[in-house]
Design a protein that fits this description.
By secondary structure, the protein is an all-alpha fold. 74% of the residues lie in helices and 0% in strands.
């Protein structure tokens, strides 16, 4: 593990250089990065016509979905498509011959790509926070530290969850469809379709113990100052619990799945 961690900076840097080379792809990704703002536009229309829900203002929706845009682009789901493509083409065989486990290869590639992309996205979000009226976050030093930790946890859970689902490819050719179904159902529990505070009580009760909220809603709510110390601690406990759970499930699926792998090309 120490050797792997030592290799991470070089692998991430290499992936970032590759990502920066394909500027057209990065620019195209940037155009689709603001998809959550479409959901925000819907909510702003609802607020304009029927009035804001209790405890929420137009500025709250602006702040929520601006932060959700950042989390949307840290989902880590890109690794599902890479795993799926490499299993189908046989390129996974080449990765198996390298001294670093395929998980770390995909993880560093994704992280390098995200860093290049966020280098372009973050200034836009910061500028919007400074210039757009009503876009406000009641930050404190402690809250910023907690948000940074929640952001890292969100990415780690999203990446490990996607990687675990990708291993379904050892048994089925429908990996991508299974992932889309999983995340489609999870979009309601993550706070992406609507803030969980506006969801029915039964859905909110279920959502707080699922991994989807860790990957989006929890960091956003934390940044907006809508969580007290107990709720914050609970959110981190759930997130780390899912991180450990997916890590264990990944190891089990990998151990059994790689024995079934048969390269068909490469």
């Amino acid at each position: 593990m120490r050797e792997v961690l030592t290799a991470y900076p070089s692998l991430v840097r290499s992936a970032a250089l590759v990502g920066a080379t394909y500027r057209g792809q990065v620019a195209l990704s940037l155009l689709t990065a603001f998809f959550p703002l479409l959901t925000m536009a819907v909510w702003l229309t609802v607020v304009e016509e029927g009035g804001p829900p209790e405890g929420w203002t137009t500025g709250d929706f602006l702040s929520y979905y601006a932060a959700a845009t950042l989390l949307w682009n840290l989902s880590g789901d890109r690794v599902v498509w890479r795993w799926d493509a490499d299993m189908r083409s046989g390129d996974l065989s080449v990765r198996l011959l390298r001294p670093v486990h395929p998980f770390h290869q995909y993880a560093t590639e994704d992280l390098g790509h995200r860093l290049v992309f966020l280098t372009m996205l973050a200034p836009i979000l910061v500028l919007a926070a400074l210039l757009v009226p009503g876009l406000d976050y009641p930050v404190t030093p402690a809250r910023l530290v907690a948000f940074a930790a929640a952001l890292a946890l969100a990415y780690a859970v999203g990446l490990l969850m996607a990687s675990t689902f990708a291993l379904i490819g050892f048994w089925s050719t429908q990996t991508a469809h299974a992932w889309l179904l999983w995340w489609g159902l999870g979009s309601f529990a993550s706070g992406w379709v609507a803030p969980l505070a506006l969801m029915p009580d039964w859905l909110r009760t279920v959502a707080v113990v699922l991994p989807f909220r860790t990957a989006m809603g929890f960091p956003v709510e934390l940044l907006m100052g809508r969580l007290d110390a107990g709720q914050t601690g609970y959110g981190f406990a759930v997130g780390f619990g899912w991180l450990a759970g997916f890590a264990l499930l990944y190891r089990v699926l990998w151990r059994h799945g790689v024995r079934r792998y048969q390269a068909v090309a490469g």
